[in-house]
Amino acid sequence: MPMMTAKEYEESLRKLNLVVYMFGERIKNVVDNPILRPSLNAVAKTYELAHVPEHEDLMTATSHLTGKKINRFTHIHQSTTDLVKKSKMGRLLGRKTGCCFQRCVGMDSLNALSIVTHAIDAKKGTPYNKRFLKFLEHVQENDLTCDGAMTDPKGDRSLPPHKQVDPDLYVHVVEERKDGIVVRGAKAHQTGATNSHEIIVMPTVAMKEEDADYAVSFALPSDAEGIYYIMGRQSCDTRKLEGGKMDQGNLYYGGQEALVVFDNVFVPWDRVFMYKDYEFVGQLVESFAAYHRQSYACKVGVGDVIIGASQTIAEYNGAEKASHIKDKIIEMNHLNETLYCGCISCASEGHKTSSGTYLVNILLANIHKQNVTRFPFEISRLAQDIAGGLMVTLPSEKDLESPETGKWIEKYYKTRPDVKTRDRMRILRLIENLTLGTAAVGYLTESMHGAGSPQAQRIMIARNVNMEEKKKAAKTLCGITD
Ligand code: SF4
Ligand code: FE
After folding, report:
1. SS3 state of residue 135
2. Would the pLDDT of 215 be above 80?
3. Rounded distance, CA 234 to CA 436, Å?
4. Which residue has its alpha carbon closest to ligand 1 atom 5?
5. pLDDT tens digits along 26-44
6. Residue at which a domain ends, from 248, 279, 310
7. Ligand 1 atom with least separation from CA of 101
């Protein structure tokens, strides 16, 4: 079964036995839970579109291992064309879901590990790449969703992993056995965790020899014994329990994040891809981060939705011809397409690594993500400017449906005769969702902190810019000879 349908994906999740907690209670049926369901729907879209002929070119690829047609989310990039298609796929899915569709973290982990397992083996004669490729084939053949788990809780930021008062604040090895290792710790902010079949764990910061026990990477089925999920809550999340059709804003899709706890979890050796190889942690973190910063192409697609919503409310309000509104829409498009330039350029300027995997241009991927930490906030500000205050003072759907109050809402929130008050409320709720509600987790805070906070990109920009070349260019022009 190299490619699942959306329905098959849903059924495959039903078979998992995840230990999930939310609002202080164990969630037995994760798949049908109304708070979590929209996030599942968003991942399911990555399966659905792979079967749509119009999107096949972006959504599928040919496996370099088996030659079979696979979902691009399980693919190892074989060219810059693959990388560019990945960016375009991100925009497409962001536009179709209006939220975080979660599956990119796993794809980015697979690609980073394909490079780094190869690099460690070349230097140390270890068997990681062979193990990794076996795991990759399992992922491709079963069309699995993987959670890429990098961010540790990190405790006291001034201390390295081995100096933390509580040693579990970074995931580490607690026991080495003949048949594998036992690990303990947690990963925070795990996007799409309960919608995943597998968890790929990687270290989160560059390490020295003293941190060797923390230099570990492995993959586990998401329902392996000893793994616990505690769901993060999102602004306005309980609106999903109200059963309405409007107040959620986005009626179908959403994201999710969880704290994932590894409580003495056993990992067999064939699932271990890095073991105490502290000198390669930096490369793994950097390659994963570069790929994931490229993945923020998703926000361009969500930007498309927010711009479309802003234009729609302007038209509903009869304000679309005002020159300042037109100018604000132009500005939103300018910012959004500038983001698009970034995710396309880091892909088309990618290069082949010694493993054969193509990696994005690291400098440009970091420039792109740095822009993503800013532009969606400005786009959201402009959307709120155009939407007006009603976006947050609007009565509920139940008030619209009520015989006592519905008539007044209809009357006083009416704009043009051809615009239904109900539709005006719907689009305002969507803008609210994207800039203040559940989707703001993905469009705003995740834009800021996902794939590394702004400062992480600035460090990489400083490291990757060729300053000598720039100095030489300047000096040559004014006649300085060193
Ligand atoms: Fe993918 Fe974007 Fe969500 Fe990250 S924020 S997992 S890149 S959709
Ligand atoms: Fe993310």
Report:
1. helix
2. yes
3. 10
4. 100
5. 999 999 999 999 999 999 9
6. 279
7. 8
